[in-house]
Hints:
The chain has twelve helices and no strands. The chain is mainly α and about 325 residues long. The longest helix is centred in the C-terminal third of the chain and has 31 residues, at about 280-310. The protein starts with a helix and ends in a 6-residue tail after the last helix.
Amino acid sequence: MNNTSTLKIWSGLLYLYLAWGSTYLAIHYLVETVPPLMASGVRNFSAGILMMIWAKITEPDVRPSSKAWITSLIIGTLLLGVGNGGVSIAVAWVPTGYAALIVAAVPIWLVLLQWLWLRTIPSPMVLIGVLIGIIGVGLLLDFSSFSLEGDSAHFTLGILALLVATFCWSLGMVISQRSQLPYSAAYLSAMQMLGGGAVTLAGSWVTGEFPLLNVSLLNSSTLYSFAYLLIFGSLGGFTVFSWLSQRTPPTLLATYNYVNPLVALLLGYLFVHEPLSLKVVIAAGIIVVAVILISIGQSLKRRSAISSKPKQVL
Length: 314
């Protein structure tokens, strides 16, 4: 990568670090008045419609193939239907910072999927970075700070939902990168959000969420949270994510999962009084080191692969 592309990639990663790190708090406020799957489905389907309109305006001659739509439906279902939908369910039952910590398991799933399925052996530095990142996230865990009395069943279901969500999100990331669909980030985002949003709304209907919506309970917090998630989480975040997924290795892209918990914990502390201690500051340093190691490890591996290619003799 040249300097310009490096700047663009890290600008995109920084956006994901901040925008998606703050979505946990917004989801927390949104699911107070809207059923979780419905909230996720309406948000992503609406974003998909807006993104498709934009894609049609900017690229009117593009006609995605049926194969592209099917692939996007699969990816959207994994990323948004199960991934984002599972997180929305969990945030209704577990603290936002804790949910973000569980989501940080995505890099582990990614390494395992690439290793076992794609036979891609990660470099030692990448493995060390992943392990250090998990240690940093683990340092943040403090079960004594969370009360399980009375809500133990919901808490357990929330953790299970997060584990399934992180696995499906990781699988969606791998499939997205391998598919290499020849379309712009706008079209890819639109197709995936429409597919994922539709599947989530179908799940909301099947699980009986629709009758649970009480319109009289909707308030300004609901509307602001929805608008933030729609604009910054879905439209902005997923477009940046789709763009990065075509240009960066999955393990580097997944580093946002190490930073997002810090953002979520800080916002949870400031707005909903979730615990924040010196341990968080120490863990932050460890996680930053992990991000740097993964980035350097991927860069060195790419350079080594390029240098090992035979040079043409003119």
